Amino acid sequence: MMNDTNLTQHEKLLILLVDDLPINLHVLVSALKTDFRLKTATSGASTLALLKDQTELPKLVILDVKMPGMSGIEVLRRMRADPNTLAIPVILVSADVSEQNELAGLNLGADEYLIKPISKDTLIIRVRNLIRRNAEQSKLRLAGYVFNYSGEAIMITDRNNHIVDVNAAFIKLTGYDKADVLGSNPKLLSSGRTTEEECRDMSEAILKDGFWQGEMWDRRKDGSVYPKMMTVSVVRNRAGDIEFHLANFVDISRYKESEERIEHLAHHDPLTGLPNRLHLQIFLEQSMLIVTRMSEQLAVMFLDLDRFKNVNDTLGHSVGDALLIQVAARLKSCVRDYDAVARLGGDEFVVILRGHDIESVAAIVATKINLHLSRPFLIGTGTLRTSTSIGIALYPDNADRIDDLMKNADRAMYFAKSEGGNKFCFFSTAMNLHAHEKLKMENQLYEAIEKQELQLYYQIQVDNLYQPLGAEALVRWLHPERGQVPPMQFIPLAEESGLILSIGYWVLDTACAQLKAWQNATLTRDLILAVNVSPKQFCQNDFISQVRDVVQRHAINPALLKLEITESLMLINIEAVIATMTSLKALGVQFSLDDFGTGYSCLQYLKRLPLDQLKIDYSFVRDIATDSSDKAIISTIIAMAQNLNLDVIAEGVETEEQRSFLINKGCTHFQGYLLGKPIPIDQFEELVKQLNVTEVGADGGEWLP
């Protein structure tokens, strides 16, 4: 601090000047005002008052010894008794040359004792030296505090690499007391894991750069080893020679453990512990190189559990997770140590096999897997059964790239699943063609919506006297090249691709437009139109507003719109389903539960659903003439519906025998080929006219469509 002329007034240090004589204060101010900010006091009392102001304490007090009232010695005594002013440097000034006051002041902790008169230059030098010395002492105190209370272990060695000091954190970390290590070489801590080359590199870096940082392993006093992160810096003397080495380090055991866990999680599935997709990619790359070099083959087996979604939806994800863990264990037991089992996610697993005659090996392993996974699983206190569909692709026969190999195995798996599941299937070129054809159809279906190739057909619904009650709207795809595409070909594809949302909205909108047209005609104004709603469509966040907007836009009577939902919808979120149905019922819309008896609905929920109708599935109606079980099921459904005050409609009615049985059991609504096939709107309206002009007997026997 030799020249402070460039400092701003705020940056200059504050000094408090105390003297009862203005002339003395003037001398002090004149000497110091250039380099410092100054405050003045003329008595001991005013000095102590200023020091009580904690806004900013002075960096130095120049204090006259002899003052009336309270002497400078007394002021100093009180300052040293106050923790807030204890450390402020003090220069005592006096005209008294006797040693009594000087000794008293120095004993109380005065930093300097100057005899008046004082030259300006002497004063400035003494002030600057004192401030500099105090700053250095503050730094030393801070360094000592850091050394003693640092959370990092600190070790200081001399130029000969002998330990001269360690801190408390060092003692806590290593287990060595200070007396154990002073004078010793740091090799005392060596674990033996650091190589000579690593030690040499560290020494060279310290000599060249004066700094080194890195990881190494040390040994504690109890013999345990641990990893540490260490930084070594050198302290040089004025000649530039190394005088001390300063090493600070921390135990990074937890960091290393976390690093290993993160590394493991990056390559493994957290639920089953199996390798994940990333690890599988790396393993496949390595395996392809090995089999190429060894003239072997590789088999990629893509596995998907059959009906796993039902387990999650009905029993909960915790049961599903427990099942996946056991499946993973059984899969590992089916393969050799050098084969791989990985989980891609959900219920999808991959097995990698390599060797000679790999097709035979893969068939044996797949058979073993199908057998093992079809056995019961013990989950909690109950048992659970599942099975798996397996697709197998071979390298290099079926593909020479990982992506293609995985795709082909996936295609083979879907083929196995389409065959009923619990099977394995090898990839073939025909499957590839099927996959391309499927993709082509998906693109064409997307275009069909834009090109208006979709059309609604209507299948009539009648009462027991053949009087028209309404119809079910059924979508048909009139392809310009393929002709009429069967719904079973494109509806599942629409569900899988998500196009069912666009198609479903188009059906709803078109059906409501038709309802509006019917309301304007006498013969059709009371007909109810049933529209199928897929689970995906129903579960859209804006489905309620979609229905409301369509009903309002076409200005139809909502009571004539019946939404047909399936039992599979009950598996999603029953409370949300009930809430949506209740909101739509408030609009006046009706609900029919389609294909009743074939799905997974729970009877305890059935009474809570705001339904208007149950629809008996055609699979029960088909064999009622010969199957006593179907007769019993239908009788039960009709009786239950009557108890719940619900209408019942039977679909798939094809013979008079079926119709008569249903009437005898109390069913009053019918749909099926006996009454009419799905037909275009013009033909449907003509059929309605015919039914309305035909005289029908009580048994309905005078008219047959």
Automatic annotation (TrEMBL):
Q: Report the leader peptide range.
A: none
Q: Where is the EAL domain?
A: 438-692
Q: Which residues form the GGDEF domain?
A: 296-429
**EC number(s) in its UniProt entry?**
3.1.4.52
- Indicate the segments forming the Response regulatory domain, all copies: 14-131
Cofactor requirements of the protein: Mg(2+)
PTM 4-aspartylphosphate: list the residues.
64
Give the catalysed reaction(s), semicolon-separated. Answer: 3',3'-c-di-GMP + H2O = 5'-phosphoguanylyl(3'->5')guanosine + H(+)
- PROSITE patterns documented for this protein: EAL (PS50883), GGDEF (PS50887), PAC (PS50113), PAS (PS50112), RESPONSE_REGULATORY (PS50110)
A Pfam family this protein belongs to? Answer: PAS_9
**What is the protein's given name?**
cyclic-guanylate-specific phosphodiesterase
